[in-house]
């Protein structure tokens, strides 16, 4: 099927019937795309794991999916991403990580996300979540290998997960929309002194805590600095940590995922932090999920300027 005509339901059908060998080819081709993309970024900006977007065009930003194929399908249809991309419009689809694990359709969601990257490599950005983190920081329990083995069989499932972990290592640590927002899966790296600490967080792990905080930390009110997180990794961080990071990066807001939200989104730190949670299926109990769609040229001073762009759904 020509990519010019492919629609969300077509991707779902493909994901349901994909053979292990074809999935493996997709993972490897997607990895090659990421490597080339980041080499090009590095040669231009020395920011291979931190993507900069100019303030033009539209962005669709998706938080945690955790194997929820219904939410992913809804967002693709509701946002009209595929039609916009097919018409050559300046649109960016940004996933902030946590594609699989927990939910029942993790292999299918991973397939669709990678297929989108393959079809529209310059319009789709894939970030790293804590469920795509280094093997010394994976969640417990971690269901992704079980889900792949159930779908593809023991041997093929193990191979696919192994190759996926190689792919995960090349996902973006952060995205900066210039002068507007920084996107990080978890939280602000409290000890960051330069943009290179974000760009190279994966290289400095585990000696330095930047990557751990970016994947695992959560904002809290009425807190100064950081304190240990009940998650067992990362930290809880206060508004002063957010303020410091935003100043360092010359942006106005932090957009993140990672955290369960009953309404599908929440706002912290004097309207400087927006959390998006894009799944509302078991094991989660939230009635609503949400994603963000906005014009990147929009002037932003805080999250209030984005409030009407938050797309909440059941």
Task: Please provide a written account of the structure.
The chain is an alpha/beta fold. It has one domain: 4-Layer Sandwich (Purple Acid Phosphatase, chain A, domain 2). The protein has 11 helices and 14 strands. The protein has helices at 8-17, 20-45, 69-79, 81-86, 106-119, 144-152, 154-168, 195-199, 201-204, 210-216, 239-249; strands at 50-53, 58-62, 91-95, 124-126, 174-177, 181-183, 218-219, 226-228, 235-237, 253-256, 265-268, 273-276, 289-295, 310-313. The strands form 3 sheets. The chain has a 6-stranded mixed beta sheet, with helices on one face. A 5-stranded mixed beta sheet has the order 4-3-2-13-14. Strands 7-9-8 form a 3-stranded mixed beta sheet. α5 links the parallel β3 (91-95) and β4. α1 (8-17) crosses α5 and α6 (144-152) crosses α7. The chain is globular, with a radius of gyration of 18 Å. The mean pLDDT is 95.
Task: Label this structure with key terms.
314 residues; alpha/beta; Purple Acid Phosphatase, chain A, domain 2; five-stranded mixed β-sheet; 11 helices; 18% strand
Low-confidence stretches: none
CATH topology: Purple Acid Phosphatase, chain A, domain 2
Major β-sheet profile: 6 strands, mixed
- Chain-averaged pLDDT: 95
Count of alpha and pi helical runs: 11
How far apart are the termini?
31 Å
- Assembly category: single chain
**Which superfamily, in CATH terms, is the homologous superfamily?**
Metallo-dependent phosphatases
Category by helix and strand content: alpha/beta
Shape: globular
Total number of β-strand segments?
14
What is the helix content?
A: 25-40%
Side by side, the strands of the main sheet go: 1-5-6-10-12-11
Number of domains: 1
CATH class: Alpha Beta
Range of strand content: 15-25%
Question: What CATH architecture label applies?
Answer: 4-Layer Sandwich
Order of helices and strands: HHEEHHEHEHHEEHHHEEEHEEEEE
Radius of gyration: 18 Å
